[in-house]
Amino acid sequence: MNNNLNKKAIVILSGGMDSTLSSYIAKTDGYELIAVHFNYGQRTQNKELKAFRDICKELNVVNKYEIDIPFFTQIGANALTDLNIDVPTNGLEDGVPITYVPFRNGIFLSIATAVAEKEGATAMYIGVVQEDSSGYPDCTDSFIGSISKAINEGTKEDTKIEIITPLVHLSKSQIVQKAIELSVPLELTWSCYKEEHEACGVCDSCRLRLNGFTQANSIDPIKYKEF
Asked: Where is Zn(2+) annotated to bind (predicted)?
């Protein structure tokens, strides 16, 4: 861990449980954190931004970026940024769900790369979860490996960035257990796709989160409408 002292890492921090745990792991790994958050027209944008700011305060992150990406609402085609498409509440879908935002993580990582190159960061942490990702194609180990190669080919020769995915092979219950172990303030995080005041409890993200807490024999500290 000492070899990372004084080195910088970008943490892509949505304010959700996974990205928050990933950020805490980055801090535990000894990096100086630079937090990057994206407002992309998602239904819970205001709540996620508040979560980001609250978590940055807990982590004592001084250097942070709040980046607006308005075009996701323009292209639509997903339930998170297109208000004409309902967020599913009947359980996880087969295949790629309608909550998948086209190439979102690829775009996030590309923008974060520009920030990393500017800041001289050598690592980027992202909380993707392959086994529990609802079928999103941009949450896989294979995708991360491919985009990692691309960003290092497309940046300056002296820019060397490692994409670190500490949660990629964990289940939601393991994520909950790890978050508790690291004293992550889970009460500040937000996962719901639909609501900004009390979590709906029935969207895919809420179901995965609640199931993780149940399997970890723990109680989720955020408020739910249905529970």
From this structure: 192, 200, 203, 206
